[in-house]
Design a protein that fits this description.
Largest sheet: none
Shape: elongated
Radius of gyration: 18 Å
Distance between the termini: 36 Å
Oligomer: single chain
Structural class: mainly alpha
Number of strands: 0
Strand content: under 5%
Helix content: 55-70%
């Protein structure tokens, strides 16, 4: 089983990865203001390469060689873990991470806070929250409001859990 920090490359996404176990891919989300940091851009670039090309890039790239050794090791470790995932999960994580990066900084920060809250719940509650989030994600805004206001919803989730789900629902993109 992979580590607890799946929602690494995933915005709200991690919660939406159907049945996927959390992956340990480093920070859950890039820090605010670091969107264009050299290491973050390098990881984004490397994630889109084949594993052999990644190794060659890291061996030859002056930018990579200038990074502190601990940071180089962290990038290598995250890439190894990422590369072990099935192709469909890698594609899904890349797509969801791209969506996260498109969020305005304040929504990115909100997503980070919600991720931290989500991680404080026991695994069984996280599973229940994930399942509910999947339902909310597929619903229209009106359906979400009705669902979250229902007796059933209030009976299944604590006040804190309901607030977490509400926050996640508020980060969902508007329907087309």
């Amino acid at each position: 089983m992979l580590g607890r920090r799946t929602w690494a490359i995933v915005a709200l996404a991690a919660l939406g990865a159907a049945g996927a176990a959390p992956q340990r891919l480093g920070r859950p989300f890039p820090k605010a203001g670091k969107k264009g940091s050299p290491a973050r851009n390098m990881i984004d670039h490397l994630m889109r390469m084949a594993p052999d090309d990644q190794k060659e890039f890291m061996r030859r790239s002056p930018r990579f060689q200038r990074l502190p050794p601990m940071q180089q090791e962290g990038i290598q470790r995250r890439l190894e873990e990422f590369n072990k995932l099935p192709q469909d999960q890698r594609d899904s994580l890349r797509e969801r991470y791209d969506l996260f990066r498109q969020l305005p900084p304040e929504k990115q920060e909100r997503a980070r806070g919600l991720y931290r809250q989500w991680g404080e719940y026991p695994i069984d509650r996280r599973q229940a929250l994930r399942q509910e989030f999947l339902h909310l994600r597929e619903a229209t805004p009106e359906e979400r409001k009705l669902r979250m206001g229902s007796e059933e919803h209030r009976g299944r989730f604590s006040e804190g859990e309901r607030e977490l789900l509400k926050g996640l629902a508020e980060l969902l993109p508007e329907p087309d």
